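User: Need the bound-state model for magnesium ion:
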Amino acid sequence: MLQFIHKYVLKYFGDLSRNIDVPLYLLEDSAIVNGIAFTTDSYTVYPLFFPGGDIGRMAVCGTINDLAVKGATKILGVSCGLIIEEGFEISNIEKILNSMREAALEAETSIITGDTKVVEKGRVDKLLINCSGIGVPGQELMQNYEIIKRSRDDHSSMWLITKNIRAGDKIILNGPLGDHAVAILAARGELGFKSDVKSDVAPLNKLMREALKVGGVTCAKDPTRGGLAGLLNEWAENTGLGFVIREDALPISSAAKAASELLGIDILEVGNEGKVVMSVINDKAEEILESIKNSGWSQASIIGYVTDSFKGVILETTIGGKRIIPPPIGDPVPRIC
Ligand code: MG
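Assistant: Bound-state model below.
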């Protein structure tokens, strides 16, 4: 996917947006134009309903999260594009629209524009959703920026973009990896054992706001497609820095562990929802972790740190070994987002 984006998408679009605050070619979760964060995302998950959520909740939350992780925690509005297969039950559409409504209310935003298309039977798999969103930062992003500037004499961006990451930063994850993938596999009947794991798909704008109020968040990103391994390798590639992660600090639920052993799935490579990885300045790491835990993410953890002694991603295993974590080459569980 990354190769496709570089080879084709950036070839045609990469030079068009050079003068905006955060342009396309940086490949951040959102673009920033005239101080407004703007993002779009398509959702192809199947089945459409799964423990803990459905495609509608995912679409609204995923869009909000791509804005929130760049620092735009006030979501001005979300669009809703529906592509519906002819014959898809209206009762199911109603359930999905209601989930979108509830997710928007949870994040204190609204669905403000949209589009509906119906496609002949067999030409599309039941329902696809595209959402776009716009958001702006609150006062807390400025406060966060002031704290970062106090600890550094270089020029970081106010926005939480990759180039702000420095050696010495700590890496925080807000909760267990793999739950969303396990919930989807269970709904597909592919898990092979009974699990009560729910997808924790959720809007993260309030969580981001709390972390920014403490101050010291340099960059953030949601580990969706490609999982934690994809995210950290992207950060390593774009910063030239090394990311050291401690296996014993990684929150992973027992069901996700069991699924990974049984099905040979690497939990570090599967997509997550309702999760965020933050790079934070060392002095503030404990305080930010506390604020995340107090916001309801009790399993949040400082999972590692950034170093300039190598470039890439290394996992320090529980038994004291070191393992290189390469960028994922495939998608271990496709169409989960
Ligand atoms: Mg994202």
